[in-house]
Design brief:
The termini are far apart. It is elongated and about 60 Å long. By secondary structure, it is of the alpha/beta class. Helix 6 packs parallel to helix 7. It is 42% helix and 19% strand. The strands form two sheets. The chain has a five-stranded mixed β-sheet, with helices on both faces. The chain has two domains: 115 residues, D-Maltodextrin-Binding Protein, domain 2 (3-Layer(aba) Sandwich), CATH 3.40.190.10; 102 residues, D-Maltodextrin-Binding Protein, domain 2 (3-Layer(aba) Sandwich). It has 13 helices and ten strands.
């Protein structure tokens, strides 16, 4: 009996051992059944660097003094704000007057960084005298018009009326660019049909004052201290106290504005950046909004 029981126990032990061995060979191991988790480096996209996402505009700083023609005053005020927003490290001071006056001041050592003129002649003088960093850059055009006080007491209806006896014409000094352009316009008008003989001489006889710059000319007309004046279209556009008299298109004169970086500038990099910006798309958009034309 004992021998049979022992044999049975031995058989059961063999069966259990065989089952255990079979389970061990058929069950997958933990190591082979679990998919490896992706590493943090592989699953997270690298963030763009600050250098790659930042503006490519050069870092500019310091102060700039801009000398500009008086007809640019409103446009330069807008440009001053826009440029300082684009380049917050730069502060700008704007000074406006007749281009000829500003050119003389720069010759005498005035601390300007950029000179923006209503012509090409005055910046050209600085180039000739070695006072400009490079040749002038053209940045705008402008046309001429005739303005009268809103009440128009002289009853002027066409530019031909500028030659009528008793009409008080306000002009500017002989060296101011608007005078050169006005002289050209008057000569062109004299050739138009319907204009009286001696138109040029009669116009010149009617000029009762020669103001320092075109802004002063406009002011005289606004105050009613003159009957008419030849000014830039942009001057008429910015005034609410004058009325314009249309000039024949084929007689009109296109004024060309240009600028230079002053050679003695203490902030040449910022000065050049401003001139390039002002002559570029951003500056052109501002100039256009004030009635200026693209440079010819």
């Amino acid at each position: 009996m004992k021998s049979r029981l022992g044999a049975l126990i031995a058989i059961l032990a063999l069966i259990l051992a065989a089952c255990s061995s079979n389970a061990a060979t058929t069950a997958p191991s933990v190591a082979t059944s679990v998919v490896p988790a992706p590493s943090v480096a592989a699953s997270v996209a690298p963030a763009p660097s600050v250098a790659a996402s930042a503006s490519t505009a050069p870092a500019l700083s310091g102060s700039l003094t801009i000398y500009g023609a008086s007809s640019l005053k409103a446009a330069l005020a807008a440009a001053q704000t826009a440029f300082m927003v684009a380049y917050p490290g730069v502060t700008i001071t704007v000074s406006t007057d007749a281009s000829s006056t500003l050119e003389t001041q720069i010759e005498q050592g005035a601390p300007a960084d950029v000179f923006l003129s209503a012509d090409t002649t005055n910046p050209g003088k600085l180039v000739t005298k070695g006072l400009a960093a490079a040749d002038p850059v053209k940045f705008a055009g402008n046309l001429l018009t005739v303005i009268v006080p809103t009440a128009n007491p002289a009853g002027i209806t066409t530019p031909a009326d500028l030659a009528k006896a008793g009409v008080k014409v306000i002009g500017a000094g002989a060296t101011v660019p608007i005078t050169k352009y006005a002289t050209m316009l008057v000569a062109n008008l004299a050739k138009e049909t319907g204009y009286p003989s001696g138109f040029v001489a009669a116009y010149n006889a009617n000029v009762v004052s020669q103001e320092d710059n075109v802004a002063a000319v406009v002011s005289k007309i606004e105050l009613g201290e003159g009957d008419a004046a030849i000014v830039y279209v942009t001057d008429a556009k910015t005034s609410t106290r004058v009325t314009t008299i249309t000039v024949p298109a084929d007689a009109n004169v296109l004024a060309t504005y240009s600028g230079v970086v002053v050679k003695a500038s203490r902030n040449a990099a910022a000065a050049q950046a401003f001139l390039t910006w002002f002559a570029g798309p951003d500056g052109q958009a501002i100039l256009s909004s004030f009635g200026f034309l693209p440079p010819p």
